[in-house]
Amino acid sequence: xxEQQTQSAWQHLLDVxxxxxxxxxxxxxxxxxxxISYTMNEGDTLGVVGESGCGKSVHALSIMRLxxxxxxxxxxxxVFFRGKDLLQxxxxxxxxxxxxxxxxxxxxxxxxxxxxxxxxxQIMEALKLHQGMDEKVARARAEELLVLVGIPEARxxxxxxxxxxxxxxxxxxxxxxxxxxxxxxxxxxxxxxxxDVTIQAQIVDLVKRLQEKIGMAVIxxxxxxxxxxxxxxxxxxxxxxxxxxxxxxxxxxxNPHHPYTVGLLGxxxxxxxxxxxxxxxxxxxxxxxxxELKGCPFAPRCAFRVERCAFEAPVLEEIDSQHIAAxxxxxxxxxxx
Length: 337
Prior knowledge:
34% helix
């Protein structure tokens, strides 16, 4: 890496460059993440949205180096965190980063928490490993963390097992584990999907308050654009393993320039300008990611497609200094809003 590239990597908390992840299956090579790039600064909140199978979670697991190999493999790119390329670290070095500097919470805490270990033990384990705390100090800190995330009777609940917690409390416990070592970056992979609407709102509000208190950056992965509108500063819209539009949340929601983004916003009741019309539905299905795609991956479902879309994939281009989109007809898409 050149001196200029090294300096650029240090300018951002997270600098993802041309990240590419593939899975080798019996049917062929699945191109799950296709050369995506973006940056984040300290304290930023980034929303990553898109339908199931678009690469949101795989891209996050790639950052954490948690892609199972085989069948998966990170086949290209660089992921700089505080100036060091995570993809070049040894396994031992990466284990020291996970939990301590970058934490991740998952969609279903019941599958993430060990059912035969107490919640307190699982929180204390990270504190002992990364912070070097002894049993007494780690337990006191674990109690503080449960109080911080709003779990009542925290001292007693440390000795409970995950099945003794409700779904919302398990997710709060996962957040406590994620925050235990004051990470610089928290990756939340659809953490509210399995919860009811009231609990969802509580979890979102909790993360926002903790972010303000601790100063960490957050990547919030979701298919819910309403959640992103309420908490993120920027948003990456993903489709077929690629970022197809990116920019400030307010700008993207007000002036989407990719037909897929238009479709997502049209399906969100609160985001539509004309609420007398029926909710919009994107016709067709996402493309099969086995093998390399030709042309624009959204073309078969796009109302704005032209002949060029079938054989030439658009690249991300500037709409303005902070807003980019990958669409040959982005000017026309804008005019119909």
